[in-house]
Amino acid sequence: MNSKLNRLPIWLALTTALCTPSIVAAQSGEEPSPNVTVQERSRPDYDPIGIHAGSYFIYPSLTVEGAYDSNVFATKRDEKDDFFATIAPRIAAQSDFSRHQLNFTVGAEGAAYDQYDSNNYLDFFTDANGRLDITRDDTLSGALGVSRLHEDRSSPDSTGRGEDVTKYWQDVLRLNYRHNFNRFYGLIGGDITRFDFEDNGDINEDDRDRNQYRGRLRLGYNISERFSGFFEGAYDVRRYDNTPNDAGVDRNSQGYALRAGTEIDITGILFGELAAGYTHRTYDDDSLNSVGGLGGSGKLTWNVTPLTSIIFEARGEVQETTVVVDGDPATADFEKAVSIDVTHELLRNVLLNANAAFIRDDFEGTDRTDNTFQAGAGVTYLINRHLSLDATYRFSTRDSESTDADYSRSLVRLGITARL
């Protein structure tokens, strides 16, 4: 790891702060809102007022950061470090209807590097999401989003340091309908996702352009006010624009996932859902083997005290990939990940955060397996309802069967956010 960063003082300071006895109890006299994390909790003295326009509240914000990256190309050898700056404007419009809901968000983030400007990027997005309360027991919800994003250098599919970062468009349409039958409920939904990659120098990225179609059905039973069990089945189809691709491989595929799980809602203390089961995917090309195994997803939030929230997340799913090992293309990336995130309210306007994650990528059809560990910490200082300061530190390291894919990386960010 780059010797320019001494992480020990940062970790000692944050560890000490997280272990400090709660001096906020006297400051926060009210009970926290149900099913809200410490990070998201309302703070009347520091929350932005927004702009009231008819039935909407509009919340503009602007974040400016200065950052340092110890390994901008995420490589094992000949690491290059650099400073960069980001700017991220955002406008959110939230409805204030007595029934139903319709929200809009538009935003962007641009980064400019001091030395290695091939890492510069400009991401932007717009999305709308809403809920139609048809009856007390019938709800229709949906979302529509368009984004232009970039692929981080640490991605196994990254094209390397000789080209710019890979940029792509992602469009999403999602619909869900839920009906309650006394203690039983049913949910049926689906989504369409479009990926459109931009060519990167001499690299033709058109082979990655694709549409993904997914449908799902969930049947559940409310065991009590606090627990419910469910069974869910999903089927999805992935269709590429170019088949076969430049390497002569047809990556079109179809797959299914069967899961059983539980929803937990111990109001204000523990809430979320966990599901596990089996996932399987087959490919149109006979040279690509089928992929199957244990899959699932889950997110649980535990409000340990009125001042501390812990969020646990886990997932296991089959991802698309362009990784090639010794001339053999990987069938898929069977990714499994677990993470934990802790937020503590040290003072009413000072929030501390620590997080860690482990990600395992199995590139099916090859000998390559990647194990990635990530850890980070940060502090947010709410100056007033219009300004806040953030400082974060992020460390990541990858151990791969492909030695050229190993890397270690530190990222430090200092930023200020202005809100109305």
Automatic annotation (TrEMBL):
Residues 1-26 form the signal peptide. Keywords: Signal. Pfam families: BBP2_2. InterPro entries: BBP2_2 (IPR018759), OMP/PagP_B-barrel (IPR011250). Gene3D superfamilies: 2.40.160.20. It comes from the Bacteria. This is Outer membrane beta-barrel protein.
